Amino acid sequence: MTYTELLMAIQHRTGYPLTPTAEDAFLAEITGMIYGWCALANPLAQVERAAVVNALGPLRRRFMAGEGAAQDFLRLNRIIEAIDAAFDDATRLRP
User: What is the mean pLDDT of residues 45-62?
Assistant: First the structure.
């Protein structure tokens, strides 16, 4: 799955606007973390499940340390669930 396909799948499952011009700083941080951690050269590059989930680890640790808004923590969890579901669906669709 490509980075762009992943973002579209997350948007579909969560309703969160994850376009590159997202006005929500928290959502922009998430998309930036994934793009940066996966060291992507362009939005059409392939992403791996483990790398995507690991990319959000620092953000999860920040929330576990008591930093950040509860609403954002809930959104992060919903996004992680959407990521898992998107990769599960992609795996089922492979020949």
Answer: 94
State the residue for tokens 């997350």: 10
Report, as an integer, the average pLDDT of 33-55: 94
How many angstroms separate the CA atoms of 95 and 50, rounded?
21
Go through 18-55 and write b for each residue having 16 or more CB atoms within 10 A of its CB, e for each that does not: beeebeeebbbebbebbbebbebeeeeeebebeebbeb
And the tokens for 37? 């951690």
- Parent domain of 87: 3-93
pLDDT at 22 > cutoff 90: no
**How buried is 65 (Cβ within 10 angstroms: 0-12 exposed, 13-18 middle, 19+ buried)?**
exposed
Given a cut of 90, whether residue 20 has pLDDT beyond it is no
